[in-house]
Model the fold of this input.
Amino acid sequence: MFRRLGDTGATLTLTVDGKEIRARIGDTVAAAMLAAGIGRFRTTPVSGAARAPYCMMGVCFDCLVTIDGIGSRQACLVPVREGMAIETQQGKREAGR
Ligand code: FES
Done:
């Protein structure tokens, strides 16, 4: 569904649910995950419906993921880093996680 408009530049490696993906330096987490073919970022707490990034600018909160152990981070606003560990979120988050 998504493809890059040119694939130049250095890359780095991060994991999503334990699986390694490559990302370009300067990508946001959401852009890297979408480019890797990941379209399910979280499920809603009430119905369990799947969600994926919608606005890509920090407004809709449909891109929430756990990044390096910290839950409910907006993937569209966080730039990738080498070795980052990302987990998709299922249902509600516990306070302090
Ligand atoms: S995609 Fe809307 S807040 Fe991240």
